[in-house]
Amino acid sequence: MASYQKLTLPNNLRSVTVQLPESQTSTVLVLVRAGSNYETKKQNGVSHFLEHMLFKGTQKRPSKKVIAELLDSVGASFNAFTSKEYTGYYVKVASGKIDLALDVVSDIYINSLLDAREVEKERRVILEELKMREDLPMIKTHEAFEELLYGSQPAGLPIGGTKESVSSITQQEIAKYYHLHYVAPATTVCLVAPQDHKDSLEKIKNYFAQIRDQGLAPGAPKTIDDQKKPQLLVKTKSTDQTHLALGFKAFPIEHPDRFCLELISLILGGGMSSRLFQKVREEEGLAYYVQSDMNLDTDCGYFAVKAGVANEKVGYAVESIINEISDLKKGNIEEKELQKVKDQFKGQTALSLESSSDWASFYGGQEILVNKVLTPQEMFNHINKVSPADIARVAKSVFVEEKLNLAIVGPVGKRQEKGFMKLLAID
Fold first, then answer.
1. Residue 51 appears among annotated catalytic residues
2. Which of 63, 136, 224, 340 lies 20 to 30 angstroms, CA to CA, from 409?
3. CA 35 to CA 48: how far, in whole Å?
4. Over 80: is that where the pLDDT of 1 sits?
């Protein structure tokens, strides 16, 4: 079983070491509090742009090819990602190669060249990535939903930026953002390996000794919620299927009802036996996919149902989804169904923690967001305490009409928009 230890080093770098005794692989994951929530509208996409640039070369390894060849030579899995609240860089290797992984990740994180010529090359790559995302209606719907929730605030901006913002970001702006945010107090290094915690901690101290320590990086602006009535956003697009996201503003990740909302999400749209899947797809045949999820950040959060439906059936699908939500809000939940989703949560958690990289994401992701972590068992303890009365209470507090939002991407006309707006009511 995995065990963890966490420590803030003298330079304010946070470390999380996870011992996985029988693991044949090791993973180093570096996370930094620098995501689209830290950006302005003008520089939207700079976090993602910088993520692309860090693999482009250092003094020690002057090109992406050199870095890739070195990691490929030991069969490593490596990549990076950007989210709303943080950016991550990871390398997963056979356990005997962990020093190589640490050497490479610390080098690109601390010593990236950010060459101006490479910036222009990568700009073209990112613009093509944005075009690809524009052609994927499920992604476009997700971005439209967050735009509807948060407007022009950073939380409402697309992680990758826009064509306009990415085209205008300069090398100097990227370098300034890098030196401002990629500092020890904003960074968490998570190392998952079979070795003991003491050895892992010493490796982190050694390889990240040169990280910049310039005090605290700028924080993200607080997300403001001033919604007073239901909202609708339609992105007209020629598609063979209409995609929608219907949901409610909720609460931040440290809210005490977080785990109750997790179970509500499973009840409504967490799998093929969920209420929405059975009703909207199996009984009514309105959608190919229908699912629910929740996204909780440090100062805001939401619950959403997402579906892809026939263009002429959107209204019926919206009504059906709202009816199921209303039914749960009335307290229609039995202990048997609640126990099923509790067991489902535990099983899904177990399946999500099968490798060293999974454990790195699990513990590192918690630490970078809220400076503390829960073990799987501690999460299960919270889950076990949830009662049917808790489900009804949280459903009533979250599923309120004034916080209802609907984003739609598809071939929708103005007359249909008015009809959809009339549907946005909940008992």
1. yes
2. 224
3. 7
4. no
What confidence tens digit (pLDDT) does each residue in 332-358 have? 999 999 999 999 999 999 999 999 999
The two structure tokens encoding residue 2? 């995995």
Helix (H) or strand (E) holding 77: strand 77-82
User: What is the DSSP secondary structure assignment for residue 425, as one 8-state letter?
Assistant: -
How is 176-236 classified by DSSP, letter by letter? Answer: HHHHHHSSGGGEEEEEEESS-HHHHHHHHHHHTTT----SPPPPPPPPP----S-EEEEEE
- CA dist 174 and 297 (Å) reads 25
SS3 at position 276: helix
Q: Which of 176, 173, 172, 160 is nearest to 125 (CA)?
A: 160
Q: Verify that 306 and 395 share a domain, yes or no.
A: yes
Residue 213 covered by a domain: no
313 and 242 assigned to the same domain = yes
Which residue in the list 22, 39, 51, 335 is annotated as catalytic?
Answer: 51
- Alpha-carbon distance 312 to 234, whole Å? 15
Tens-digit pLDDT profile for residues 377-423? 999 999 999 999 999 999 999 999 999 999 999 999 888 888 899 99
- Residue 416 is predicted with a pLDDT of 86
Residue given tokens 């202990």 in the structure block:
335
Write the CA distances from 19 to 25, 31, 354, integer angstroms.
11, 19, 14
Question: Per the structure block, which two tokens stand in for 255?
Answer: 């809210």
310 has pLDDT over 80? yes
pTM: predicted TM-score of the whole model, two decimal places: 0.96
Report the amino acid identity of residue 327: D
Together in a domain, 337 and 382: yes
The residue out of 207, 241, 272 marking a domain boundary is 207
Query: Between vectors from CA 39 to CA 33 and to CA 41, what angle results, nearest 5°?
Result: 165
Residue 277 is given by DSSP the state: I
Q: How far apart are CA 222 and CA 253, in angstroms?
A: 14
Q: Which domain covers residue 69, as residue numbers?
A: 3-207
Asked if 194 and 67 count as a contact pair (C-beta separation under 8 A), the reply is: no
Instruction: State which of 207, 239, 265 marks the end of a domain.
Output: 207
Same-domain check for residues 123 and 22: yes
